[in-house]
Amino acid sequence: MPRSKVKLAYISNDSARRTTFRKRESGLIKKAEEITTLCGVEACAILYSPYSPEPNVWPCPLDAQRVISRFRNMAPPEQNRKMVDQQSFARQRLEKTTEKATKLRTENQHNEMTQVMYQCLSGRLGFECLSIGDLYYLSGLVSQNLRVIDRRLEFFQRHYSG
Amino acid sequence: MPRSKVKLAYISNDSARRTTFRKRESGLIKKAEEITTLCGVEACAILYSPYSPEPNVWPCPLDAQRVISRFRNMAPPEQNRKMVDQQSFARQRLEKTTEKATKLRTENQHNEMTQVMYQCLSGRLGFECLSIGDLYYLSGLVSQNLRVIDRRLEFFQRHYSG
DNA sequence: AAATCTATATATAAACT
DNA sequence: TAGTTTATATATAGATT
């Protein structure tokens, strides 16, 4: 935006595009860091680019060990699930309810769990990183999802193939 | 930053913190949109806050339908896996190799798949959204991960319990 | 509480090294 | 190609409504 105002469109010049990407990538991460610090919220930014073999995942890779150790001490998110369900029925006073739910969610580190699960299942984090407790928990979670998927497939088979 | 320079630390005043969050949240999303457009890259930003029941997931929720329909036509990411493995052996000319891999990854929409998988498994997107083809694919992926987890658990049992 | 308005801090495009 | 500089566009803190 400085020196000259740039049109918001794909930059066709390769080196200019790359330069812009590098500058703006660091700018975006900086902004993410700031909002996190200033507002005490959790944020995550993922940038895929042709300039790096891995996506730039902020703040996850550097923080992975901390996230994993939190995950290890976490209980199954049962109460959390219930809380979320309650929300969908009570749309009045949404924010108050939500604030409570978010606090609960933060307390029991559901976010960290889903991040770690995501990273493991998508191959970005090796299962070797997980403790035996993590693995039991993850095994249960994955099995549960598999059952849901299977039920859904049976539903399709009953309705569309018979 | 305007009017006065603000110290980069948690804002303890509730309403000030909320106001700052709202302003910066939109700023961050705008920046993410810009880098995406200008540089032709894929990016994703997730913001958890106590002010909204769901995390602000950009650009995923609005784009979910498009992402899902891409996912439906996707082949298993076998070639992609191989490509990524090759990379870890060939650290010379990293960027050239990476550029190819990224293009492949973009072409076969691996990113979209992992996003959708993440959303489904973490409960943010109902399995009802998926076609029968998606479900078969996801079922295979989840089963595969379950086998890896089980092997890992057996490893622990052999080494630490017997 | 949310929207609008400024003055100022910050981000960044282009130039230069 | 990457780092540094600088002029300008943008983002945003605080004030106001």
From TrEMBL, chains A, B:
It comes from the Eukaryota. This is Uncharacterized protein. It comes from Rhododendron molle (Chinese azalea).
